[in-house]
């Protein structure tokens, strides 16, 4: 997915929010926002939005001397989600269709995203998601492909939602295949790193690898050799979240996109990839989409 003109205002909002989070110094905030404006003016529209976001967040980290600006929010998100985990496990255990429930919970966790949503209610989101239908529902295909898969690659997204991903990994591990969980190499926004996945117990369930980047997505050409090998060898890839969708939407691979749609630009591209009319997918929709 390429960056569109509609993405520019979102970049500006993200930069302003992150500047305020990074420093309480008003002069430095203004300096950061001014430099962000220059970077946004030079955006490469041939790249995906997550790839273009990297230079913005790197600049703010350097100017504020805070390499992991969202560290406190990431830790808080993980702690909050882990506190919810016993209740979520009970919900999953009572489900007549554990796989569907695990998918809905994983999508609910995707609301924890400080790049697109600074305000959200995770408890309410879980309740709502469990009582909603998927706007795009390739669950039947997913069930079949999961049973056939021997190597599953799960692309993690944000902190906090890792606890929800843990439930999903527990559920899909009931098949005979191997599961590998991928995270980011370096900090950006509240995207998960290996230390976060370990804090949420995912290392007890499967092997964790880094994709080798500090991009809030998965730009394959910039990823590590280890990750690209795992990607190429996977029989099934679960791509979690909007950033991974934006960077992988046009890649030919056995991918299932699992996300909550967070802007209309992405909604329209999701519809395009799914072969649906533009406008048929809306912000807030829940999606399980097989890449065809």
Describe what this molecule looks like in 3D.
Strands 1-7-6-5-2-3-4 form a 7-stranded mixed sheet, with helices on both faces. It has 12 helices and 7 strands. The model has no long low-confidence stretch (mean pLDDT 93). The protein is globular. It folds into 2 domains: 7-64, Helicase, Ruva Protein, domain 3 (Orthogonal Bundle); 72-290, Uncharacterised protein PF01937, DUF89, domain 3 (Rossmann fold). Helices cover 51% and strands 11% of the residues.
Keywords for this structure?
51% helix, 2 domains, 11% strand, Helicase, Ruva Protein, domain 3, seven-stranded mixed beta sheet, Rossmann fold, 292 residues
Q: What percentage of amino acids are in beta strands?
A: 5-15%
Rg measurement, Å: 18 Å
Number of helices: 12
What can be said about the biggest beta sheet? Answer: 7 strands, mixed
Task: Please state the structural category.
Answer: alpha/beta
Q: Look at the structure and give the CATH class of the largest domain.
A: Alpha Beta
Mean of pLDDT: 93
Q: What is the level-2 CATH architecture name of the largest domain?
A: 3-Layer(aba) Sandwich
TL;DR of this structure?
This protein has twelve helices and seven strands. It is an alpha/beta fold and 292 residues long.
Secondary structure elements and their pairing?
Elements: H1 7-22, H2 26-41, H3 49-64, H4 71-94, H5 98-109, H6 122-130, E1 136-137, H7 139-148, E2 151-155, H8 161-172, E3 178-183, H9 194-199, E4 207-210, H10 225-233, E5 236-240, H11 242-248, E6 255-260, H12 264-274, E7 286-290
Parallel strand pairs: 1-7, 2-3, 2-5, 3-4, 5-6
Antiparallel strand pairs: 6-7
Helix pairs in contact: 1-2, 1-3, 2-3, 4-5, 4-8, 5-6, 5-8
């Amino acid at each position: 997915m390429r960056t569109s003109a509609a993405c520019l205002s979102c970049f500006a909002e993200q930069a302003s929010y992150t500047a305020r989070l990074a420093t309480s110094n008003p002069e430095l905030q203004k300096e950061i926002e001014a430099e962000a404006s220059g970077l946004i003016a030079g955006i490469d529209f041939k790249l995906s939005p997550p790839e273009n976001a990297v230079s913005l967040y790197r600049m703010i980290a350097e100017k504020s001397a805070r390499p992991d600006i969202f560290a406190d929010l990431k830790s808080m998100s993980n702690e909050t989600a882990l506190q919810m985990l016993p209740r979520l496990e009970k919900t999953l255990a009572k489900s007549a269709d554990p796989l569907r429930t695990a998918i809905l919970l994983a999508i609910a966790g995707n609301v924890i995203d400080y790049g697109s949503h600074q305000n959200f209610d995770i408890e309410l989101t879980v309740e709502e998601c469990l009582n909603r239908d998927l706007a795009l529902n390739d669950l039947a295909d997913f069930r079949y492909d999961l049973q056939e898969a021997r190597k599953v690659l799960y692309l993690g997204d944000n902190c906090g939602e890792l606890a929800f991903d843990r439930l999903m990994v527990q559920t899909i591990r009931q098949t005979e295949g191997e599961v590998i969980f991928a995270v980011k190499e370096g900090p950006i926004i509240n995207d998960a790193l290996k230390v976060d996945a370990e804090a949420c117990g995912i290392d007890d369930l499967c092997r964790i690898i880094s994709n080798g980047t500090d991009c809030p997505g998965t730009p394959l050409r910039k990823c590590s050799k280890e990750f690209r090998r795992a990607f190429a060898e996977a029989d099934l890839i679960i791509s979690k979240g909007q950033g991974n969708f934006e960077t992988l939407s046009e890649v030919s691979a056995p991918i299932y996109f699992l996300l909550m749609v967070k802007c209309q630009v992405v909604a329209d591209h999701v519809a395009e990839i799914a072969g649906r009319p533009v406008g048929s997918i809306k912000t807030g929709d829940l999606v399980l989409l097989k890449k065809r």
